[in-house]
Design goal:
Elements lengths: L16 E12 L2 E12 L3 E5 L6 H8 L7 E5 L5 E4 L11 H11 L5 H11 L15 H13 L5 E5 L7 H16 L3 E5 L4 H6 L2 E6 L2 E6 L1 H7 L7 H11 L3
Parallel strand pairs: 3-7, 3-8, 5-6, 6-7
Antiparallel strand pairs: 1-2, 1-4, 8-9
Helix pairs in contact: 2-3, 3-4, 7-8
Bound molecules: adenosine-5'-triphosphate (ATP).
The site of adenosine-5'-triphosphate has 11 residues, from strand 2 and helix 1.
Length: 247
Amino acid sequence: MERPAVSPRPDPVTATPVLSARTLVKRYGSRTALAGVSLAVKAGELVAVIGPNGAGKTTLLSLLAGLAAPDEGEIFGPAGKVGWVPQGAAVYGRLTVRENLELFAQLEAVDDPERRVAEALAACALEERAAQRAEALSGGLKQRLNLAIGLLADPSVLLLDEPTTALDPRQRDNFWSILSGLAGAGTAIVYTTHLVHEAEQYADRVLVIADGELLFEGSPGALAAAVGAQGLDFEQAFVRFLHARGH
Ligand SMILES: Nc1ncnc2c1ncn2[C@@H]1O[C@H](COP(=O)(O)OP(=O)(O)OP(=O)(O)O)[C@@H](O)[C@H]1O
């Protein structure tokens, strides 16, 4: 696959936040899924959200995406400019790649749908697959279509829930090339993953969440340093960190 050109991306240290949230709380009945999480994401920044099963990662992203409302706290974001890439591709198998994009563009009432569909196809290197039915796509291509749908509204922030879990290493590499290109062009990217080396490899900043609480925010190296695990494999450092924090 041809890699997209990567332009120098905004410096995430100095860039302006494009999305921020203050003390988000979300409860499901008596269960507190998020217990007061705050964050700020800047243009061109790649942020990984990692944590054990049930930590609240998907809940956090769904609030940031505006799919659910927090019980407490506030979100400040670019209205209508947050792209959402859910874990499973919610595409229509019997429609082609292009038809799926046209349908979602219509459902989301995006401006200039024809141009946006063309741009989303190009951004995800799907032009040659445009006429193929979605049900005939490989897992990697289906996930690229899922991403293309998330890009239709030309979002300045893209939220992805475990985007590469089901992909083989080559498709994963392709997918990260696309995301790196988008970050290079200034899109802020927030993703959850259980493949924690993807946090180490690609994220500028890592958020560690467990039991609905934000336990750490910083670079992958700083997470390892926080538990004296420099030089250890990042996954081992992460497990050591969780253990040290009682998880
Ligand atoms: N719709 C819901 N109704 C009730 N409880 C929910 C709902 N969604 C999530 N929860 C609960 O909220 C908590 C956080 O769930 P969430 O899916 O956000 O975690 P996660 O970190 O994404 O987990 P995983 O890594 O397993 O995907 C869990 O205890 C989960 O069971």
